[in-house]
Write a structure and sequence with these properties.
- It is elongated, with a radius of gyration of 22 Å.
- Helix 1 packs parallel to helix 9 and helix 5 crosses helix 6.
- The protein starts with 7 loop residues before the first strand and ends in an 8-residue tail after the last helix.
- Strand 6, helix 4 and strand 7 form a beta-alpha-beta unit.
- It folds into 2 domains: about 180 residues, Rossmann fold; about 150 residues, Phosphofructokinase domain (Rossmann fold), CATH 3.40.50.460.
- About 35% of the residues lie in helices and about 20% in strands.
- It is an alpha/beta fold and about 375 residues long.
- The chain has a 7-stranded mixed β-sheet, sandwiched between helices. The chain has a 4-stranded parallel β-sheet with strand order 9-10-8-13, with helices on both faces. A two-stranded antiparallel ribbon has the order 4-5.
- Bound molecules: 6-O-phosphono-beta-D-fructofuranose.
- The site of 6-O-phosphono-beta-D-fructofuranose has 13 residues, from strand 12.
- The site of 6-O-phosphono-beta-D-fructofuranose (F6P) has 13 residues, from strand 12.
Length: about 375
């Protein structure tokens, strides 16, 4: 059976921004226009633009010279979900299902379907649209690298580069002042950034959500180094790290977001808990925060973003709806979006990365 011709596709970036988004937008647009002669529409500010019919025509000129730039030329939002869309009417907030309105906009614009660049939350929404019959292809994005069914999300390597660079800088000042330096990095439920940056930046202690830590073990590591004449220590802590028998440190809640919890503050807690016991040692905390999400993507993310963008259009044209492009080993392939959003991809406890870190003496705060 021959398929109806495809002429127009829509594109949006959803969720928190991430270095490499523009490389994907450029690759999708160029491939769609040059290889397949399509027209491309980009929705503004993620799913909000889809619901409110805010869009821009993407052409070769509008995506020229953006591959090396951070952010997203389309804008994004990690709050707007068409299936539970926040509106304010006569001063009061309400959440309504606006998915049919969004689908109406897709039809009225004559779009054959959508390419959604997003993480767990946005791909969940994309999957719901797919179940309602919208033709969707997903592209995996998040600095946290915690999406299942792909080895790497684009943006992750840039975040690691930023965090590792921060550790290099903290090292010299830590050593000069004989201090304990704590770097808090992003990673809500998975410690990929902390682990990679910690190994790359020669941390002494890495605390990740997957391994609840004992403060006694952290103190033991600092004390051991002190006895060996190393009067400074570097600790990397993921924002979602938890003490044994303790809780994640929540900074605030964003009730309208798909994932309302905003973490932050675990670095300060670790500092206070160490400070209570090691009263002679000076401790300083740096929260890297959104610096990890901003700025120019490293070459790996520009290249991966480009590969993902090209592959997404090819998958769409091949009729692989409901799929997400994915890196498996060295190959870009496709998987069902459902597989990617089933569960968060955490650092496996038998990972050779953990073994390598332990091999060079890094402590995970285990008893
Ligand atoms: O999921 C990406 C992420 O950067 C998390 O690591 C972080 O906890 C969260 O987004 C921060 O979100 P916001 O942009 O709302 O501060």
């Amino acid at each position: 059976m021959s398929r109806a011709p495809i002429n127009h596709i829509g594109l949006l970036t959803g969720g928190g921004d991430c270095p490499g988004l523009n490389a994907v937008i450029r690759a999708v647009t160029k491939t769609a226009i040059i290889e397949f002669g399509l027209e491309v529409v980009g929705f503004i500010d993620g799913f909000r633009g889809l619901v409110e019919n805010q869009y821009t025509q993407l052409d070769l000129r509008s995506v020229s010279g953006i591959s090396h730039t951070g952010g997203t030329i389309l804008g994004t939002s990690n709050r707007d979900n068409p299936f539970s869309f926040l509106t304010i009417s006569q001063g009061s907030q309400q959440q309504t299902d606006e998915s049919e309105r969004a689908i109406g906009n897709i039809k009225n614009l004559g779009l054959d379907g959508l390419i959604v660049i997003g993480g767990d939350g946005s791909l969940n929404i994309a999957h719901q649209f797919h179940k309602k019959g919208v033709k969707i292809v997903g592209v995996p994005k998040t600095i946290d690298n915690d999406l299942s069914a792909t080895d790497v999300t684009f943006g992750f390597n840039t975040a690691v580069d930023t965090a590792s660079g921060a550790l290099d800088r903290l090292h010299t000042t830590a050593e000069s002042h004989h201090r304990v330096m704590i770097l808090e990095v992003m990673g809500r439920y998975a410690g990929w950034i902390a682990l990679h940056a910690g190994i790359s930046g020669s941390a002494d202690v890495i605390l990740i959500p997957e391994i609840p830590y004992s403060i006694d073990a952290v103190i033991a590591k600092i004390s051991q180094r002190y006895r060996q004449g190393k009067k400074f220590s570097i600790i990397v802590v993921a924002e979602g790290a938890v003490p044994i028998d303790g809780e994640m440190v929540i900074q605030n809640l964003v009730p309208t977001s798909h994932d309302p919890i905003r973490l932050g503050g675990i670095g300060q807690k670790v500092a206070e808990d160490i400070g209570e016991r090691l009263t002679d040692i000076e401790i300083r905390v740096t929260i890297l925060g959104h610096l990890q999400r901003g700025g120019s993507p490293v070459p790996f993310d520009r290249i991966l973003g480009t590969r993902y963008g090209v592959a997404a259009v090819e998958a769409f044209m091949a009729g692989k709806y409901g799929c997400m492009v994915s890196l498996q080993g060295t190959q870009v392939t496709t998987v069902a979006i459902e597989e990617a959003i089933k569960e968060i991809r955490k650092v496996p406890l038998d990972s050779d990365l953990l073994a390598a870190a332990r091999g060079v003496g890094i402590s995970f705060g285990e008893d």
